[in-house]
Design a protein that fits this description.
mainly alpha; 222 residues
Length: 222
């Protein structure tokens, strides 16, 4: 037995966990599953007549070195992070697409002269951006299921979809902030219009949630 295998379950799992990056909940779940497998293997060796310390060392040796195991576990984390990001993006894209127009209805300036053409173009592009987000998120979810059926956690196409989704979300955040700032510049009353205030707060919370999910995927997929 190699010297590197002269360790216990706790030490081996700490080493493995230190090499993994991604969603904390999924990471904890994977480590718990690994512990369960190691405990079962240890119990089997003990049933075979080995002393407890030796049984544990044998189970750890069979389990494999963290450097060898980490890539497969990291793929699982990346796939889970992309699923979380995609589900969140799909939900928020739907809400913001439907709710975006509601912030303007009944406003004191809605019956006045139309805004500049550039503003109208930017406002019209928001629906297109969120539709693209929804499409990419749905494609990532379906691609993840297809990969899982083939016994793979991630694919190169899945990574490309993840990058495209993160990039489109960033574009949506920048465009949304620009549209809000331009709206306030055009109509002072926008800052005191309740639907506008509520919409801005909800959009901010949504973008923050997406930022956290996107960052989690970037960390897991790097």
């Amino acid at each position: 037995m190699h010297a590197c295998d002269e360790v216990g379950i706790d030490e081996r799992l700490r080493d493995l966990a230190s090499r993994l990056h991604g969603p904390a909940r999924l990471k904890d779940e994977l480590i718990r599953e690994a512990r369960g497998a190691l405990d079962d293997a240890t119990e089997a060796y003990r049933d075979g007549g080995l002393p407890a310390p030796e049984a544990e060392r044998r189970a750890v040796a069979d389990f494999g070195a963290p450097a060898e195991l980490a890539p497969a576990y990291q793929e699982e984390l990346a796939a889970g992070a992309l699923r979380g990001l995609s589900r969140r993006a799909l939900l928020i894209a739907g809400v913001l697409t439907v709710g975006g127009d509601l912030t303007w209805r009944g406003s004191s300036w809605s019956g006045g002269p139309p805004p500049p053409a550039g503003y109208q173009l930017l406002a019209g592009s928001m629906n297109g951006i969120w539709l693209a987000v929804a499409g990419l998120a749905l494609a990532a979810l379906l691609g993840g299921r297809w990969a899982a059926r083939r016994g793979s956690a991630t694919t190169s196409a899945g990574r490309l979809l993840g990058w495209a989704l993160v990039g489109t979300l960033a574009l949506g955040a920048v465009a949304g902030m620009a549209l809000f700032a331009w709206s306030v510049e055009l109509w002072d009353a926008a800052l005191t219009w309740p639907p506008m205030i509520v919409g801005a707060l909800l959009a901010g919370a949504a973008h923050f949630a997406l930022f956290r999910a996107g960052r989690s995927w970037l960390v897991a997929a790097r």
